[in-house]
Amino acid sequence: MLKATLNVKENIDVRKFPTAVPHLKSKLVGYQGRKSKILTREDITKCIKEADDERNLLNKAVLILGVSAACRREELVNMTIDGIKDVEFILIIKVPYSKTHSERTLTVSNSEYIKIYQKYRDLRPAHASSR
Description:
- The protein is mainly alpha-helical and 131 residues long.
- It has helices at residues 2-10, 20-27, 41-50, 53-68, 73-78, 111-123; strands spanning 84-87, 90-95, 104-108.
- The chain has a domain at 41-123.
- The chain has a three-stranded antiparallel beta sheet.
- Strand 1 (84-87) and strand 2 form a beta hairpin.
- It is 47% helix and 11% strand.
C-alpha cells in the first residue's frame, strides 16, 4: 500500500531503492492492524429505541434506510424523499445510481422502521430546500 501511494502521489518508484523494502518489512514485524468497528443488530436496535425523536428523528430515518438498503455513503447522499414510496405496510425504496452504475429497488417491511419513517415524513417541512 505504501509503495502504491508513493508511486501515485509522489511519482516515486520504491523498486529503485533495493534496501527500502526489506527495511520496511523489518519494521512491520509484530504489527497488528486495527479492526474496523461495526454496528451490530443490537447496536442499531438500541439506537433506534433509545435515541430521542425530537433531536434524532432524521438520523434514525437515515440509519434505517442505510442499513435496510445496505447503502453506500454516496447512495444515501443521492437518495431523495421522492424515491421512497409508502405502500400499505411496506416501504418501496429506490436506491439511486452509485459505484455500480445500477439502480436498485427494495422493500422494508419492519413495522417499527416504517412508523419512524412515516413520522419523519409527516414532520418534514413541505417547502424544505433539499429533497
